[in-house]
Amino acid sequence: MLKGERIKLGIVGTGRIAQKFMGEVREVPEFDIVAAYNPRAASVSAFCSAHDIKQQFTVLEDMLSAVDAVHIASPHITHFEYSMLALSAGVHVLCEKPVASSAKNVH
């Protein structure tokens, strides 16, 4: 990224944490929230409508090609898998804690 460029950010998950994060991230001038992901179409559609997000995805890999970074705000059990998918796609990751709930969840 070049200095002054905005970061295209995608939100992974549309629950309580994602809702809270939206209020905070809107104040960061470097972020341009361009997409959201949830495997449930109705949930991601409602979230995108509520937050004026143009792109909605029910397949995470599809969203990863449209963003520079993701905020992982999905259930804890998915954090490691989603983080690794994003990192493997060359996408920066901001993950809510924990990345994994136990060592057995880390491959």
Q: Any key phrases for this structure?
A:
4 helices, 5 strands, 5-stranded parallel β-sheet, alpha/beta, 22% strand, 34% helix, 107 residues
Molecular structure report:
The chain has a five-stranded parallel sheet, with helices on both faces. With 107 residues, it is of the alpha/beta class. The mean pLDDT is 89. Helices cover 34% and strands 22% of the residues. The chain contains four helices and five strands; from the N terminus they run βαβαβαβαβ. Strand 4, helix 4 and strand 5 form a beta-alpha-beta unit.
Summarize this structure briefly.
With 107 residues, the protein is α/β, with parallel strands linked by helices.
Structural category is alpha/beta
- Largest sheet entry: 5 strands, parallel
The total count of strands amounts to 5
Proportion of β residues? 15-25%
Helix content: 25-40%
Strand arrangement within the widest β-sheet reads: 3-2-1-4-5
Radius of gyration equals 13 Å
**End-to-end distance, in Å?**
30 Å
Shape: globular
Q: List the helices and strands in order.
A: EHEHEHEHE
Number of helices: 4
Mean pLDDT, to the nearest integer, reads: 89
Low-confidence stretches: none
Q: What's the arrangement of secondary structure elements?
A:
Blueprint: E1 7-12, H1 16-25, E2 31-37, H2 41-51, E3 55-57, H3 60-64, E4 69-72, H4 79-88, E5 92-95
Parallel strand pairs: 1-2, 1-4, 2-3, 4-5
